[in-house]
Amino acid sequence: MKAQYWLALVILLTAGLATSAQAHIASNGFLTLQVHASELDGAVELAVRDVELAIGVDDNHDGTVTWGELRHNEARLQDYVAAHFSMSAQGSACVLRFKPLQVNERVDGNYAYLPFAAHCPGEARRLELGYSLMDGIDPSHRGLLTLVDGATAQTAVLGGANTRAVLEVDAPSRLRAFQEYLQAGIWHIWSGIDHLLFLLSLLLPAVLIRRQGHWEPVPRARPAFFNILKVVTAFTIAHSITLSLAAFEVVRLPSRLTESVIAASIIVAALNNIFPIVIESRARIAFAFGLLHGFGFASVLADMGLPSGARLLSLLAFNLGIETGQLAVVLAVMPLAYWLRTGVLYRRALLPWGSAAIAAVALVWLVQRAFLPTG
Amino acid sequence: MPRACGNHSRPRYYRGRLLWGALLLLMQGALASAAPRIPDSDSQVLAQLPAGVRHTSASTLEMSRSRIDIALPLARFYITQARASGDLRYLGYAEGMLSPWVHRSPAVPAALVLDATVLQSRHAFDAALTELDRALQLQPDDAQAWLTRATVLRVLGRYDEAIISCSHLQAQAGADIASLCEQSQRALMGHLATAYATLSSMPAQALPVQALAWRDSELGEMAERLGDDAAAERWLREGLQIAPRDFYMRTACADLLLRQHRATETLSLLSGYEAIEPMLLRIAMAQAMLADPALTRSRAMLESAFALEQQRGEAVHRREQARFLLDLQQQPQAALAAAQQNWAVQREPDDILILLRAAEAAHRPDAAAPALQFVREHALEDARLAAYLRPGAAT
Q1: Fewer Cβ atoms within 10 A, N terminus or C terminus of chain A?
Q2: Could you give the count of Cα atoms lying within 13 Å of A162 in the half-sphere of its Cβ?
Q3: Nearest Cα to A126, choosing from A155, A157, A88?
């Protein structure tokens, strides 16, 4: 269990607690936007109570608004928002496409949450927003905007006399995309422990040499270095090939298949350390299975999407991120392995039992991924 | 660790992002909210609509724009609701009703006075004064306008001008109301004991019920400034009997109890008022005294509410925010900044107190200077300030 999950969980829990009673505050609408080149993701949030005032959703006039009532009025709500909220990039209007309505609980009660995707003509450099929600009903209503653009966030307050806001999204989008995808690559390899376990299984014996059915330490650093280099290079070339093919949608494999085979690849690599069959050419295992790991990486990229206009660059950045993350782990672990290689502990305990443990974990994954129903 | 069962097609990328997402959420404490969701059932209730919160058809709305006999009572209704519930959204609805009538020329005086009330409730005091002056130009004998004007000027510490406004009440509202208005100013100008004696000897029959609650509230505060906490509590409790929904008096009473470390009594006094920010602050302070675990929730709610106000660029509860930062968050520097921003907007004795306390906690005696200057200038008496006014106390 990683610390980061706990942290996130604790924060989500406390945030949830804060909303279980409601505070009286002035009327706010929340506008969140996330820029990816010419595509924007976002959401408009309007208090359910304000939605009632604006368009009337209490269909049975019983003084309460239920989810059913809100949902039945989804199209009217979207029309209302579309009529009172607009976005343009460099003077040309962006097209908003609403996604299914949700509900968000805030400090002053429930909000109708309208997620949308916006497509702007050209890259969004100079965004102009128009906001007149609750106009004529509550002049004190304000739209609180948060625009996330890579690592930076801008805020603005709309409403009242101030119905327009112009935001400069000034960081060059190619650089931003590059950074974003590089970071995603690094994160992916560090949090995707299965790829690392596969690689480590292949690298653990790299500081050893097999002689007459026994593992012996390599005499010098040079052969160990070349062993590592061969495995890492083979793995990198292989997964780069399939990642590119999948990213450009030349080849597509079902994720259940790739995820299962990735688990199987770890078992094979780990068992090969205990009952060595392939010794001199572990780089070939790295290459063969690396092809499948590439498809695994690609599924992440498919979720993120490649920004149009910077597809190749983003793919390159993501791959570079993976290599960077992978190299950092190799540099952290292998010198230690090299230093420990002469001891009995490494050869008799760490290598066999470590590999057995890895194989056991991977077996659980294999069962989960291949045979259990997906959620 | 095996992967969590479930979502295989949205893999690990999201785990890393979860951390950033969560941190972003934390940074935007203002926007603190659980994740958006799709409710399980159509029958799930999302909101209970309070009184007067119903969609009005465009034609009805249009009618209120053209008929003052519809707009004014509705605006009054919303302001009453805001006062009775502490719900700030009603102020916005009132403003919406009044807007066409205050922006025309000539404006409707009654609409200007109501608009000034809305602005005063939002602590937009200068804007409120402008509306009142416009109303009084059109209708110089409007008692409500003069009274609201006196109240606003007093909050701004402009007592001499406030007394002039009080004197205009004589003709329309009677000598007793005018005296009540004037004495409450004099009590801040070096005549505390005299004002207290005058008001406490005023026969109760002389005043209408609302004015009686007002007198009790003034006497309560005067007694507290005189250092007679027992008498202060008696006046405030009596006033609350008459006007239980007077939030100003209730918070004053809570502050009195808190100062005496009577946390449990504070909680029972404020029970049911959790939704109102200034009340919630006092509740949180009582919870802190009792080491009540419910403090976590109160604190988080206050934090969100203050952050939202800040983001909106409003100063409605800056004094409360300063107290929150000083007493509950132990952030004296931030508390001082809030107290200074508050001082730029309003100058009641509580505003002096928080500025002096924050300046002391932040080791910034220079920051207390404007408040000390104000106290000297007006010969303002307040037992609660004594500790900060002793020679050398602030240095």
Answers
A1: N
A2: 14
A3: A88
pLDDT digits (tens, 9 = 90+) for A182-221: 888 888 877 777 888 888 888 888 888 888 778 888 888 8
Q: Give, as one character, the DSSP assignment of residue A208.
A: E
Report CA-CA distances (Å) from A178 to A33, A74, B18: 20, 38, 20
Other beta carbons less than 10 A from residue A16's beta carbon: 15
C-alpha distances in Å from residue B128, one per residue of A216, A231, A308, B95, B151:
88, 76, 53, 12, 11
Rounded average pLDDT over B332-360: 96
CA distances from A370 to A259, A260, A262, B7, B25 (A): 8, 5, 11, 13, 35
In DSSP notation, B258-270 reads HHTT-HHHHHHHH
Using an 8 Å Cβ cutoff, are A265 and A289 in contact? Answer: yes
Dihedral Cα A225, A227, A232, A235, nearest 10 deg = 170
Mutation target vs A (from B28, B89, B97; most A CBs, 10 A cutoff): B89
Rounded Cα distance between A194 and B102, Å, is 68
Q: What is the DSSP letter of B326?
A: I
Show the tokens assigned to A189.
């390899």
Token reading at A2: 């990683």
Q: What is the mean pLDDT of residues B147-175?
A: 95
Q: Which two three-digit tokens encode residue A261?
A: 């085979």
Tokens of A329: 């782990």
Residue A191's φ and ψ, nearest 5 degrees, are: -95, -15
Of residues B60, B49, B75, B44, the one with CA closest to residue A52: B49
Mean pLDDT of B108-135: 95
CB contact under 8 A, A23 and B304: yes
d(CA B306, CA B320): 9
Cα(B164)–Cα(B81) distance, rounded to whole angstroms?
Answer: 31
Least confident range from A57-71, A297-311, B263-277, B363-377: namely A297-311
* CA distance linking residue B263 with residue B257, whole number of Å: 7
**Partner-chain residue, chosen from B6, B32, B61, that has the shortest CB–CB distance to A375:** B6
* Contact state of A138 with B92 under an 8 Å Cβ cutoff: yes
**Min distance B313 CA to chain A CA atoms (Å):** 8
Measuring CA to CA, how many Å separate B17 from each of A307, A328, B2, B337? Answer: 18, 20, 19, 35
Collapse the DSSP code of A201 into the 3-class scheme (helix H, G, I; strand E, B; otherwise coil) and give the result: helix
Give yes or no for a contact between A77 and A90, defined as CB atoms under 8 angstroms apart: no
The percent of residues in chain A predicted with pLDDT above 90, rounded, is: 27
CB contact under 8 A, B50 and A49: yes
Rounded to two decimals, the ipTM of the complex is 0.82
pLDDT digits (tens, 9 = 90+) for B280-335: 999 999 999 999 999 999 999 999 999 999 888 887 899 999 999 999 999 999 99
Give the gap in angstroms from C-alpha A342 to the nearest C-alpha of chain B. 30
Those residues whose C-beta lies under 8 Å from the C-beta of residue B355, and which sit 6 or more positions away, are: B322, B336, B339, B340, B342, B343, B367, B368, B370, B371
**pTM for the complete prediction?**
0.68
Total number of residues shown for chain A: 375
Residues 256-275 of B with CB under 8 A from A: 274-275
Cα atoms in the Cβ-side hemisphere of radius 13 Å centred on B271: 6
Are A219 and A338 spatial neighbours (Cβ–Cβ below 8 Å)? no
- Asked whether the beta carbons of residue A107 and residue B85 sit closer than 8 angstroms, the reply is no
A235: its two tokens: 């793995």
pLDDT digits (tens, 9 = 90+) for B15-44: 334 444 433 443 443 334 458 999 999 999
Residues in chain B closer than 8 A to A296 (CB atoms): 11
Of A84, A169, A176, nearest to A128 by C-alpha is: A169
Measured CA to CA, the distance from residue B115 to residue B117 in angstroms comes to 5
